[in-house]
C-alpha cells in the first residue's frame, strides 16, 4: 500500500558551531534566527522616485520573510501619508476602501509600485509611477515638514577701523535677531565715528537702518513684516517705510526664482576704503588693494535703489560713482500669482526728506504663452502713481518686460506736475556662445514725471555739500548730498554683458548712461575688462570712465593692468591647497591722479587655510613710494584682520583693523561662530567637542559640543553631516547625518546622539564560566548596550569611569547577572581599556 504525507522543514544553523570553546553556551537567539529586527516606531527619511520628500516617524511591523536590508520590517502606510508624499490616492480604483485602512498594501492598488526599506540607513524608498504623483511632488517639501526653529537670539557683527597721523575712524555694523514663537525680530544698525586730528573735530552717529518683526504666513505662502524695512519689488523703485508689509514668498515654491543683485566693479589707485550706500544708508564697507576690485557678495535690503559707491584711496583721492540697481524682467510661470502690499510712513536716512504716509500695492500673474501681466499703485497725499506692464518669455530670443507709469506729483515748490515713465528690460543667456546679458534696459521719463522719493524732498534743490575728510586729512565734498529736482531724469540706458572666450579668456562690459531734463550734461559710467588664465599665471586689463553732471565730479578715465603668478608652481610645492603663494603686479593710471605700480606677495597657511597674508610695495607719481603689510585669521569663532600702510618718507602711516563673526544665544548657552546668514543651523552633538562639520570652512564644535553652520537654504533640504574622522577616542556617534528643512530666518537645531566616555573590551564570567555567547549587556545608568562575543568578551563605548552592567541571556529572571566596574585613572585615559569582571 502506497501512501503520501507532507513534510515541513526549515533551514537551521546550530548556534553551538559559533563557539570553539569547550563547555561554552549560547544565549537565546530565537529573535535573530531569521534576520528579523524588532518592530516599532522608527524615524526614516522618505524618498519618492529617488527625490527626498520628508523625515517622519512611521510604525513598522514584521513581515512573513526577512532580508538583510529591511530586517523583516514593513511600514504601516495610510491615506494621510500618501497625501503627504504626493500620491493621488483619490484617483485609484476603489479608493474609498483606502480611507479606513491603517496599513495599506500599496502594491495591491498600484501593482507597478515598489516599497524598499533600508533598516541600517533608516531610509524608505517609494517607487510610484509618475501618473499617480502630483505634478508638484518632485522637489516639493510639504509645509508640515518645515522647521520654524528654536527660540534663540542671534547677532552678526562687522567692525573695522583706521588709525593714522591725521585721523581716526571706526565703522560698526550690527545685525541682531530674536526668534520666538514663530516671530523673527530683526534690527540692523550701524555706528560711524570720525576724528580729524588737525582740526580736532569729531563726528559720531548711530543709525537704525531697519527694525522689524517678521512672520511666515504659510496658507498664503507669504511673509508679514511689521516695523522699519524696505519695499522689495521689481515694479516700483524701492523705498524705506515704517509700517506693515505683506508679500508673496517665492522661496516657498518648489522651484524659486533667484533674486538679482548687481556686481560692483571699480579700480582703486592704491589701498582704499570702498563704501556703498543705498537709500541714504551705508550697507557695505571694505578695504581693497590697488587695481581692479569686484564686490559680488553684496546683500542689499531691496531689489532696487541705486548704489552710491565711494572709493577713498590712501593718497587722498576720492572716486564717486553710481551703480544702477533694479530688477530683471518681470516673469512668472503660468498660473502663478504674486502680490506685495505695503502701508506706512516713508522712511529715509536723508535728513533733507519728509516722511509722508503712503500705500503701495502690486500684483503679477503668469499667463499662457509665456506672458506675465503686472500692475501696481503708489498713493500718498501729494503723490498718486499707477503702473501697468507685461513680460514675455521669448524662448531663444530671451526675456523682456515693458511697463508704463503715470504719476501726479506735488513737489516742495507746491506746484503740480504730471508725467509718464516707460521702462524696457531685457535679459538673455547665449550659452552656446558663452554670452550672458545680465541686464539690458532703457527707461524714458517725460519732463513732469517724479517718483515718491522726489516728492519727499523738503526743498527743490541743495547746493551746499557736506564737507568730509579722508584718512590722510584731505577735505572733500560728498556729492551724494547734492540734488536738484529741476534736473529730472529723462532717459537711462543700462547694459551689462559677460562673454566667455573659452581658451582666450573672458570679457565683460557695462554701461550706465543717464540723461536729464534741463541739466548741463548727462551722467556716464563705462566699464570694460578682460581676463585670461594660463597654466601658471593669469592677467587682466580694465578700463573705466566716470563722468557726472553734479558739482564736484569731473570726468575721470582709469586704466589698469595686472598679472598674478602662483609661486607654488615654481617652488614645486606638493600641497598647494594648504599653502597657496601668489605674486601680483598691478599698474593703474587715471586722468586725475597720475600713475601707480605695485607688487604684492599673498597666500594662505595652516590646514584649513585660516591664516592669510599680504605684503605690498609700490610707487605713486604724486605721493612717492608706499607699502602695506596685512594678515587675516579666520577661526571657528569669527575672523579678524590687521594691516599697516606706510609711505617711504614716513609722513603717511595708517593702521587698519577689522573683526567679524556671529553669536547665537540659546538654551544651551552662548555659541560663537563665523558670520551668520539669514537662516542658520545650530549643531548639538551632546558634548562631543572639536568635531568637524562636513563641507564647511573651519567649522568645529566647541567644548560644549555646539557649532554654527551659517547660510542654510530656506524651505529646502539641508544636509548636515559630521566628519567621522574628527571624532576622538572618547566619542562615538551612530548617525552622523541629519536632514533639515528650515523656514526663512529660522535657527534650526541639528541634534546628534553621541556616546562620550571610555571604550572598553570587558571579559564577563558567571559562576566560573564565560557568560553565554550573544548575551545582551546594558549599562544601567546610561543605557549603553552591546552583545557578548566569544570567550565572554563584550565591547562597549561611552562608559563613565564607574558603573553597573546588566547581563542577560534568556527570558527567565534567573538568566541574568550584574557586574560593577570602575576604571582607574590610567585605564580611563587609555584608548581602549581591558577589564575582567565577575558577574553575580
Specify the CATH class of the domain at 29-132.
Alpha Beta
Mean pLDDT: 83
Class from helix and strand fractions: mainly beta
Could you name the CATH homologous superfamily of the domain at 29-132? PapC, N-terminal domain
- Cα distance spanning the termini: 61 Å
CATH A-level architecture of the domain at 29-132: Roll
Proportion in β-strands: over 45%
What summary fits the major beta sheet?
24 strands, antiparallel, barrel
Low-confidence stretches are 1-9, 255-261, 300-304
Please give the share of residues in helix: under 10%
* CATH-assigned fold name of the domain at 29-132: Ubiquitin-like (UB roll)
Protein name: Fimbrial protein
Membrane topology: Multi-pass membrane protein
Pfam families: PapC_C, PapC_N, Usher
GO molecular function: fimbrial usher porin activity
Explain what this protein looks like in three dimensions:
Its main location: membrane. It is a multi-pass membrane protein. By secondary structure, the protein is an all-beta fold. Among the domains are: 29-132, Ubiquitin-like (UB roll); 263-323, Outer membrane usher protein (Immunoglobulin-like, Sandwich), CATH 2.60.40.3110; 667-755, Immunoglobulin-like, CATH 2.60.40.2610; 758-838, Immunoglobulin-like (Sandwich), CATH 2.60.40.2070. It is built from 5 helices and 55 strands. The strands form 11 sheets. The chain has a 24-stranded antiparallel beta barrel. Strands 3-2-1-5-4 form a 5-stranded mixed β-sheet, with no helix packed on it. The chain has a 4-stranded antiparallel β-sheet with strand order 14-13-16-17, with no helix packed on it. It starts with 39 loop residues before the first strand and ends with a strand. The relative contact order is 0.09.
Amino acid at each position: 500500500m502506497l501512501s503520501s504525507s507532507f513534510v515541513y522543514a526549515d533551514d537551521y544553523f546550530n548556534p553551538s558551531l559559533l563557539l570553539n570553546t569547550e563547555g561554552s553556551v549560547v544565549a537565546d537567539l530565537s529573535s535573530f534566527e531569521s534576520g528579523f529586527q524588532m518592530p516599532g516606531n522608527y524615524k526614516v527619511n522618505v524618498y519618492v522616485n529617488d527625490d527626498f520628500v520628508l523625515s517622519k516617524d512611521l510604525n513598522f511591523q514584521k513581515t512573513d520573510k526577512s532580508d538583510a536590508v529591511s530586517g523583516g520590517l514593513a511600514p504601516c502606510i495610510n491615506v494621510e501619508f500618501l497625501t503627504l508624499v504626493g500620491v493621488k490616492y483619490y484617483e485609484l480604483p476603489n479608493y474609498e476602501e483606502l480611507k479606513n485602512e491603517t496599513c495599506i498594501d500599496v502594491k495591491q492598488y498600484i501593482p507597478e509600485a515598489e516599497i524598499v526599506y533600508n533598516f541600517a540607513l533608516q531610509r524608505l524608498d517609494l517607487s510610484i509611477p509618475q501618473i499617480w504623483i502630483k505634478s508638484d511632488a518632485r522637489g516639493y517639501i510639504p509645509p508640515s515638514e518645515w522647521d520654524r526653529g528654536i527660540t534663540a537670539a542671534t547677532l552678526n557683527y562687522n567692525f573695522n577701523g583706521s588709525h593714522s597721523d591725521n585721523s581716526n575712524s571706526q565703522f560698526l555694523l550690527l545685525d541682531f535677531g530674536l526668534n520666538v514663537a514663530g516671530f523673527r525680530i530683526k534690527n540692523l544698525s550701524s555706528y560711524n565715528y570720525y576724528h580729524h586730528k588737525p582740526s580736532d573735530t569729531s563726528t559720531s552717529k548711530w543709525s537704525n537702518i531697519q527694525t522689524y518683526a517678521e512672520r511666515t504666513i504659510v496658507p498664503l505662502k507669504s511673509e508679514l513684516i511689521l516695523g522699519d524695512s524696505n519695499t522689495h519689488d521689481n515694479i516700483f523703485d524701492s523705498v524705506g517705510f515704517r509700517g506693515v508689509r505683506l508679500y508673496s514668498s517665492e522661496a516657498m515654491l518648489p522651484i524659486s526664482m533667484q533674486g538679482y543683485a548687481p556686481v560692483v566693479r571699480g579700480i582703486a589707485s592704491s589701498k582704499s576704503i570702498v563704501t556703498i550706500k543705498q537709500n541714504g544708508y551705508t550697507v557695505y564697507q571694505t578695504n581693497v588693494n590697488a587695481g581692479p576690485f569686484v564686490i559680488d557678495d553684496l546683500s542689499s535690503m531691496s531689489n532696487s535703489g541705486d548704489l552710491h559707491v565711494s572709493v577713498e584711496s590712501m593718497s587722498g583721492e576720492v572716486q564717486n560713482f553710481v551703480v544702477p540697481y533694479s530688477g530683471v524682467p518681470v516673469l512668472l510661470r503660468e498660473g502663478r500669482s504674486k502680490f506685495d502690499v505695503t502701508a506706512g510712513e516713508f522712511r529715509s536716512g536723508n535728513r533733507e526728506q519728509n516722511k509722508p504716509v503712503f500705500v503701495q500695492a502690486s500684483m503679477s500673474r503668469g499667463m499662457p504663452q509665456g506672458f506675465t501681466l503686472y500692475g501696481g499703485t503708489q498713493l500718498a497725499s501729494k503723490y498718486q502713481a499707477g503702473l501697468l506692464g507685461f513680460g514675455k518669455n521669448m524662448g531663444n530670443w530671451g526675456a523682456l518686460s515693458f511697463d508704463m507709469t503715470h504719476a501726479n506729483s506735488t513737489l516742495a515748490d507746491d506746484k503740480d506736475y504730471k508725467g509718464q515713465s516707460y521702462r524696457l528690460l531685457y535679459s538673455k543667456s547665449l550659452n552656446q556662445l558663452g554670452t550672458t546679458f545680465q541686464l539690458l534696459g532703457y527707461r524714458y521719463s517725460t519732463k513732469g514725471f517724479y517718483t515718491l522719493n522726489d516728492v519727499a524732498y523738503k526743498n527743490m534743490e541743495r547746493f551746499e555739500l557736506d564737507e568730509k575728510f579722508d584718512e590722510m586729512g584731505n577735505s572733500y565734498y560728498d556729492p551724494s548730498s547734492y540734488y536738484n529736482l529741476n534736473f529730472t531724469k529723462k532717459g537711462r540706458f543700462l547694459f551689462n554683458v559677460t562673454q566667455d572666450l573659452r581658451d582666450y579668456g573672458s570679457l565683460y562690459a557695462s554701461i550706465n548712461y543717464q540723461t536729464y531734463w534741463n541739466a548741463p550734461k548727462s551722467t556716464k559710467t563705462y566699464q570694460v575688462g578682460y581676463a585670461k588664465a594660463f597654466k601658471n599665471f593669469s592677467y587682466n586689463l580694465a578700463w573705466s570712465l566716470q563722468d557726472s553732471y553734479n558739482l564736484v565730479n569731473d570726468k575721470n578715465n582709469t586704466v589698469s593692468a595686472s598679472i598674478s603668478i602662483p609661486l607654488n608652481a615654481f617652488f614645486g610645492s606638493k600641497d598647494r591647497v594648504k599653502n597657496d603663494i601668489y605674486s601680483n603686479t598691478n599698474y593703474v593710471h587715471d586722468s586725475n591722479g597720475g600713475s601707480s605700480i605695485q607688487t604684492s606677495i599673498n597666500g594662505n597657511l595652516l590646514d584649513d587655510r585660516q591664516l592669510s597674508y599680504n605684503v605690498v610695495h609700490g610707487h605713486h607719481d604724486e605721493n612717492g613710494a608706499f607699502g602695506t603689510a596685512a594678515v587675516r585669521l579666520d577661526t571657528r569663532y569669527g575672523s579678524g584682520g590687521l594691516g599697516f600702510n606706510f609711505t617711504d618718507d614716513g609722513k603717511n602711516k595708517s593702521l587698519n583693523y577689522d573683526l567679524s563673526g556671529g553669536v547665537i544665544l540659546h538654551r544651551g548657552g552662548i555659541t560663537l561662530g563665523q558670520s551668520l546668514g539669514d537662516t542658520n543651523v545650530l549643531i548639538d552633538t551632546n558634548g562631543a567637542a572639536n568635531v568637524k562639520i562636513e563641507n564647511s570652512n573651519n567649522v568645529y564644535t566647541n567644548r560644549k559640543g555646539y557649532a554654527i553652520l551659517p547660510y542654510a537654504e530656506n524651505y529646502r533640504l539641508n544636509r548636515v553631516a559630521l566628519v567621522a574622522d574628527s571624532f576622538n577616542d572618547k566619542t562615538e556617534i551612530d548617525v552622523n547625518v541629519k536632514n533639515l528643512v528650515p523656514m526663512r530666518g529660522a535657527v534650526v537645531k541639528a541634534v546628534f546622539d553621541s556616546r562620550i566616555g571610555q571604550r572598553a573590551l570587558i571579559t564577563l564570567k558567571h559562576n566560573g564560566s564565560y557568560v553565554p555567547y550573544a548575551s545582551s549587556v546594558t549599562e544601567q545608568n546610561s543605557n549603553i548596550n552591546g552583545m557578548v562575543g566569544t570567550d565572554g568578551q563584550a565591547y562597549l563605548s561611552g562608559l563613565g569611569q564607574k558603573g553597573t552592567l546588566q547581563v542577560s541571556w534568556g527570558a527567565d529572571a534567573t538568566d541574568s547577572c550584574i557586574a560593577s566596574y570602575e576604571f582607574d585613572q590610567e585605564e580611563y585615559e587609555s584608548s581602549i581599556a581591558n577589564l575582567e569582571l565577575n558577574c553575580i
